[in-house]
Automatic annotation (TrEMBL):
It comes from the Bacteria. One of its GO terms (molecular function) is water channel activity. Belongs to the MIP/aquaporin (TC 1.A.8) family. Homotetramer. This is Aquaporin Z.
Length: 239
């Protein structure tokens, strides 16, 4: 497998294992649980750390929506979309699988939602399908604007991972009560496979909304900042 695809697999594994792991293992731990705030920071830190660890290899997209947004912005080649997305989804599934094995070691383990994303009765706050779709689309749009702006050749160098990681943290603080927050189809797919049933039935939303939001962000940024950089950036200039 190409080194960039391996980097995407590893990075997405860490995002799902670290972010979803914090929700499954630590969010409600008796007396010292980290809650929504801790889970939000876990997702942000997973992206921040992997951006520095593998960003110079693959660009650290770690998310099919990011790859699509960079493509519509003219900063990622169409020929690499499918391999990147495949690597991201595989990494997310492996991350969820490892987490499931660890979590199931607890006596009386009940997978429950297993950090899966959902709407209506499976939304943490029981938000409607429309509310969840709008939240996922808008939050993904903003996430991609942060990524595209932070990696613009005119932005302060070497600080992009910090802005992106903190941006993802803020987005989780807004979105966890609504959908358990996805903005990332690979992150949603891994846990859904282990929950099955309703999670798989609702998974379509967590592909459609993030991809639409990301694609729109790429197009919008291209209009707002047409001189952002090269058409296809060098790896070290990517996310």
């Amino acid at each position: 497998m190409n080194k960039r695809f391996l980097a995407e697999l590893l990075g997405t594994f860490w995002l799902v294992f670290g972010g979803c792991g914090s929700a499954v293992l630590a969010a409600k731990f008796p007396e010292t649980g980290i809650g929504f705030l801790g889970v939000a920071f876990a997702f942000g830190l997973s992206v921040l750390t992997m951006a520095y660890a593998v960003g110079h290899i693959s660009g650290a997209h770690l998310n099919p929506a990011v790859s699509v947004g960079l493509w519509t912005a003219g900063r990622f080649p169409a020929r690499e979309l499918a391999p990147y997305i495949a690597a991201q989804v595989l990494g997310g599934v492996i991350g969820a699988a490892v987490l499931y094995v660890i979590a199931s070691g607890l006596p009386g383990f009940d997978p429950g939602g297993f950090a899966a994303n959902g709407y209506a009765e499976h939304s943490p706050g029981h938000y409607s399908l429309l509310s969840c779709m709008l939240a996922e689309t808008v939050l993904t749009f903003i996430f991609l604007i942060i990524i595209l702006g932070a990696t613009d050749r005119r932005a302060p160098g070497k600080f992009a991972p910090i802005a992106i990681g903190l941006g993802l943290t803020l987005i989780h603080l807004v979105g966890i009560p609504v959908t358990n927050l996805s903005v990332n189809p690979a992150r949603s797919t891994g846990p859904a496979l282990f929950v099955g049933g309703w999670a798989l039935a609702q998974l379509w939303l967590f592909w459609v909304a993030p991809l639409v939001g990301a694609a729109l962000a790429g197009l919008f940024y291209g209009v707002m900042a047409p001189d952002a950089g090269e058409k296809i950036p060098r790896e070290e200039e990517a996310v």
